[in-house]
Automatic annotation (TrEMBL):
The Cupin type-2 domain, residue ranges: 107-162
Name of the protein in question: Cupin domain-containing protein
Transmembrane feature ranges: none
Pfam hit, one: Cupin_2
Residue ranges with Acidic residues bias: 87-103
Region Disordered, residue ranges: 85-104
Gene3D superfamilies in alphabetical order: Jelly Rolls
Amino acid sequence: MTFPDPKQFRLVVAGPTESGDVDFLDVGPAAEFDFPGVSAGAFYWAVEGGHSKENFGAPPARVALAGPNGSTFGVSSFPAHSSGEVGADDLGDSMTVTDDDGDAGMHASDTIDYEVVISGKVDLVLPGGKKRTLVPGDLLVMAGVPHAWKNPYDEDCVYIVVTVGFNSPEVAS
């Protein structure tokens, strides 16, 4: 099975209309990103500041992982033979470069990430040289820990990603 470019998926949203009816909603475009030789994709949906029927989200206005009490939903890819090194300025506020083990690709976020590899494969590297190769069908839960992505393989890796922002201090119990 071949999957399309991660920026070409179709988002279908079912929810309440302005009149309160339930219907399929017309939504705006995804927030696309492209770090040549590192990663490309799109965030299709985001919720900011807490989840409810009244605040179930919208297409994001910018590329970022989930903020406090929020979530994002998207598709990402790591091109074949990529090292995962993104400049700190490209990461924005949603991620922090950690440079663990002197690896410029090591970064962390204030999110819990749920990811599903749908094509290709990629190495997930943790501090201390710990590594797992993720393949189609692998499910990953990432708890905001420092990590790097490496794709030394001959095909792109495409995966689905949902990020959930940690609770803000005023909401935490």
